[in-house]
Amino acid sequence: MFSFIIKGIFRDRHRWLFPLSVIIVSVAILVFAFSFMDGFMMSFVRQTARFDTGHVKVVSRAYSEMLNQKPHDLALLDIKDLLEDWRVEYPQVTFVERINFGALIDVPDDEGKTLMQADAIVFAIDLDPAGDDYHRMQIDRALAQGRAPRHSEEILISDIAFENLNLKLDDEITLLSSTVFGSMTMQNFRISGVVKFGIQTLDKGALIMDLDAARLMLDMAGGAGEILGFFTDNRFDTTRATSLARNFNQRYTDVDDEFSPVMLSMAEQGNTGYMLQVMDYGTLWMSMAFVIILGIVLWNSGLMNGIRRYGEFGLRLAIGESKRQVYFRLLSEALIIGFIGSLIGVSIGALISKNFVMDMSVYQKSSSILTENLLSTTMSMKVVWVGFFTGLLSSVLGASLAGIAVFNRQTSQLFKELET
Amino acid sequence: MKHIALLIAILISIPLAATTPSADTILQEMDKNMITNSSKATTRMVVHSRRASRSMEAISYSMGNEKAFTEYLAPPRERGTKMLKLGNDLWIYDPSSDRTIQISGNMLKQSVMGSDLSYEDMMEETSYTESYSAKILESVTYEGREAWILELEATSENVSYQRRKTWVDKERYVPLYEEWYAKSGKLLKTFTASEYQKISGRWQPMKILFKDELKEGKGTEYIIDSLELDIRIPEHIFSRASLRK
User: Fold this and answer.
1) What is the ipTM of this complex?
2) What is the pTM of this model?
3) Cβ density class A10-38: b for 16+ within 10 Å, e for less
4) Nearest CA to CA, how far is A90 from chain B (Å)?
5) Which of A106, A113, A181 shows the shortest C-beta gap to B49?
């Protein structure tokens, strides 16, 4: 029976050529689009966690209320003992201390007068090459010139800022910011290296300095603006992160103390949660839209085909086939075309996606979303299944709508029709 | 009868009008009190921030409204930090980096040593008559002192606070309390002066509480421990060279 249907489809070019082509092209586009979205999403999660949010983040309650402003004056202070406790209690998480703050780079001339100034975002991390954060921030990979800081008075600068300020390696710059108590603070640093992360928002004005140097500069003894937590398996999962944060907050957050610690999952931090939701729902909405649009196209194709096969349906009904049988035969044909089309479409989509890399730096100049400049697609079984079932469903949907016409077919006029 | 009543009313109002000076006169009298030819003061600034209270000590010199020099003496972290104002320019010297930086643009909006005062406040023209036009709103008793409430409107766009309400002591012609507003009408800061002392013939507040109303915390107390007015101050103090000395 199956081979009979197959023969029926492929011996009549009109039955398969258009619907199969539509399904192949659409599924290929869909697979490519989803793999690109997944690639974007993975890059966003990876980079956002690495540079900004962690999988979870611990800050003071007061800090959490102004999270996007990175108010280092509301940082957690003297947290060494607490941090040790958390490391024991939550072994599934690697905690790293960070201080992020805004600063003004002041470049002096030979007489010590201001030559140039520029705004900067400073990332203060543990710059021990054997440490976790050194590798997480991929310092060695990001180094475009020079070397990583070996002393607390050395600093790394992003390549765009380095060029804009006409600096040279080993030049001395002064950083201006405010201490945790709000006083102005100035500190001289020597440029030991230039970094290029491939992320536009960082490359235009980031500085990387040693955590202890930042503590000294900001009068932040034993403190950290943010303590980022990364799951040891390095996989972010919203449910796991939210559950961990809930458990932590029940133990450590004191609602009466605005400087008590509070843990936020990545999804709870600023626009990140919104972005994650948009991405999740985006896949769902996009596949639904494709099913509907493809269904309509294939419905029309089915209707055209139905007109062409009007006589055939009449004859099949006349020789005793029921309308239901004809209808289900049409659905079977659609299922086979959908299956074959989806299979080919997924394969083509996967092939296109395989080596696709897009330079997003042009679009990221005014964007604050952290992703790599070079975005590649990410193929996963989810993408394969979504693409495959979208093709299959739309084919069946189109045929099931077009096939309704079979139930209106009358055989009483059949012979008269056949005569003409 | 009507004429007699009118005459009495006029007679009563004449002495009242005579004892209430015009708003402009009040501003002039306030300027006479507040603006000094030169001054030297040792001060303490206690900043009651959201996290903690901190105290800083400084010695300040000023020459009219144009020149001012401040050197921080304590705490150790701030010791040796110096600020110099010359006209519309402001420099800060940081001993740890041995750098002198001119404060300009957005940096002027930043807080001075974490206090409720900004660098812009330090640059502010303190002459009431030059910066504001005034009208008397009402007479009140404030903290046991008879006072007028004056509404001040800035006469130029360059003034940081476009509108002020000031409670002026009727006897001493000094501000007891002020509210500083933005152009939009939003209350930005308050100023509460107390412990007035007459020094070299002028009434001067020995304690001022500044409160940035946009910031959490209990404000900044500015306490003058000693004050000398109209003294001779060597000119070299108001030079950039004195910052690195």
Assistant:
1) 0.81
2) 0.75
3) eeeeebbebbbebbbbbbbbbbbbbbbbb
4) 29
5) A181
